[in-house]
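This is your field. Have a critical look at both lines of this record:
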Amino acid sequence: MNSTDCTLPGLHHVTAITADAQKNIHFYCNVLALRLVKLTVNFDDPASYHLYYGDELGRPGTVLTFFAWPGAARGRTGPPQVTATAFSVPTDAMDYWVRRLAAHGVESQLGSRRFGEPVLTFLDPDGMPLELIGANVSANFTAKPWVAQSVPEPMAICGIHSVTLSERKTDATSQLLTDVMKYQIVGSEDNRLRYQAGTNDHGPGTIVDLVHTPDIRHGTLGAGVVHHVAFRTPDDAQQGAWREKIAAHYPHVSPVMDRCYFHSIYFREPGGVLFEIATVQPGFTADQAVAELGKKLMLPPWLETQRVEIEQALPPIQLPR
């Protein structure tokens, strides 16, 4: 496949770090009302959980995942990192979420508008910066909210809106986004540039904001920090073409890795943020029916023979009902 035929319609998922799996599950399922679509382990570290949250099916562009590292020290948010993960909610839902977060003891701030959209900022239990952005969610928007009993559908989260990349130098990262990944610059405000995926699939997570922060202290990895951000591509053939294209500019690209629910390649963008390109297929229903998603620990086939030892090593958790 010619690399010019490849598409990156937007984000696939964002992966961060939590020090407490149980608090993490409570916050994202009971407060933000996302669905736990997969409970598994870190395939590179099977002694720790990997938690996946999203819409009903865990559609690409709705998914936020966490490596659960019990007792991990708090990381420091700063460049070069994803310093904020934003979710889309309907524009008229902002006051609802201010009240809902307050009812759960979560402080939030409804700040000034960003590119014309209202932004509600708050922190998760590990101190990770999150945002809810009031967006005009059209009828042909492909993400469908996971409707929990406690959140009315008109107020529910509709997938990822955008991520904010903070960098001390932005020129090389901007060139990667536009010249290689074919994102388009669609706006600028102060030290923030906005990039939009160069497709029209009406899916979630099509926006990347790049913020120039030359004087902010360097970030460190730990709890409350984003580990990497993944972009989606439809299939293995397109991912292979993307690997060739990325490697032509940035030689240190990983081999294709089997993550069971998608296939992945990884590389560091020029500023240092870890990027992933993940396939849409086979998806989270590859080993579970829709109704069973997130209800029990799932292991990849190559770890299934170690299930007893893995389950004994993992801390007990209570899953959402």
